[in-house]
Amino acid sequence: MSQRMADALLSFILSLITYAAAVWYDGFEALTELIAAHEEWQIDEILPALLISPLGLLFFAWRRAREVRREVALRTGAEEEARRLAAHDALTGLPNRRRLRQALEQALAGDAPALGQRVALFVIDLDRFKPVNDLHGHPAGDRLLQLVAERLLGLAREQDTVARLGGDEFAMVVWLPIDGAGPVSLAARIVTALQTEFDLGGGTTVVVGASVGAVLAPEDGQDAAQLLRQADIALFRAKQEGRGCFRFFESGMDAQSRERHALQHDLRQAIRSGVIRPYFQPLFELATGRLSGFEVLARWTHPDRGEVPPSTFIAIAEDVGLIVPLTEDILRQACRESLNWAAGPTIAVNLSPIHLSDRALPAMVQGVLDDTGFPAGRLELELTENALIANATQALINIRALKQMGVQLALDDFGTGYSSLSHLRTLPFDKIKIDASFIRSMACHPESRKIVAAVVGLGQSLGLPTVAEGIEDAPQAEALQAMGCNVGQGWLFGRAMPAAEAATIAAQGCPGVQGAAPALAAPA
């Protein structure tokens, strides 16, 4: 029977049912009047109608039951999909953090030790994921995450769990034999698999690499929350040690993690209270010995810990998102304190990759200059090559805005990052700073000496002054002056000093190196 015929029959039956209901509702007298008005109706007409009515009701009930079943099926499917999405990542289809924890708890509740097995948890973080998004777009980043998921699934067995924890972080829960190097072998295979090139399609290929933190049960504990925290601690250690590697949790790491957490808390308080102070390290012209300017360096004297190394608290500030307020505070203090120094020397402040990716950077710098009255031409901002590659588009916008203010820009740590010549060609830098590692190794590594000479020659050809960092003795200064390097900085000329001492140096005007002979004694 066609759909049209079925609909017609259903309409007819419904009409009969409606009619019958009206008859019974109006009562027997109404039925008598109706029969009288339609005398042509005979028993042979009424009987078929009465016989067909139950069939119509049956057909209607069947159609309604089928619709109810369809609605139930759709609702059940929607509920199942909702439950699946609640436990899985929509992009990769992998279990999410919630489901991973359930899998870990189930594994810990099993009888792995009795079976000669251990439970291993691996937390995996991609090393260079953000540049993929910045340079190739978020669709490319999404495709990369899907390919990472596929590679990790290729390393897992059916009973293992591979999950995406969020962002570019993944995890695996596996059962491995207690005896043997299974966990180490798998961790190494994970690192190797994610170091291999990814083809994102459209001719785009990327290499990202990954760091891995691992923890074992029952050796390191039997609590899922504790194991996840310990794996994160091991992952952080792997990142600290250069990325692209794996580290297993060790008991000492926990104490170090608590120590770091306490230092983070103290750092927040120190920034709010302004106790982190700017120190000033002088720079001198190698040929004349005249003061060229100062580099501003942050120094933190902790009330209980004493002097906290900048390498420690600057790294923490970058990791926990405090580098922007810290830099603004140091810049503001430095501008205010050096505003009225004799001869108006320049001051140079370092910017991190986070600053160049921050669209608010130009407004922050302009706000500091307006508040302190410091001339833009006396401010120099030092940018590393790594900072330029982190978010190339926003970095270029910020650099152009800073140059429009009249701020000077220096390319710091030259030769240690990416695409150095390209940056010099396309970006408006005012000077080049040669990394201290090349200066220190000139005496024992001829290659370093050649690199320094080449950078100095490149600066001369481009009309850019060169600054040598990390000069520690007179022979280094003499060699650099002979090459034609313009400015020197390092312990030979003076360490970073408080503002009052730097003001005295600025007032002297020319206390530095004349013919590479330091007039300032190197501090003890």
UniProtKB/TrEMBL annotation:
Could you tell me which residue ranges the GGDEF domain spans?
A: 117-251
Q: Sorted alphabetically, which Pfam families does this protein's record hold?
A: EAL, GGDEF
Q: Which CDD domains match?
A: EAL, GGDEF
Question: Which residues belong to any copy of the EAL domain?
Answer: 260-510
User: Which domain of life does this protein belong to?
Assistant: Bacteria
Give the matching InterPro entries: Biofilm_reg_signaling, EAL_dom, EAL_sf, GGDEF_dom, Nucleotide_cyclase, Rev_trsase/Diguanyl_cyclase
Instruction: Kindly provide the name given to this protein in its UniProt entry.
Output: EAL domain-containing protein
User: Which species is this UniProt entry from?
Assistant: Teichococcus vastitatis
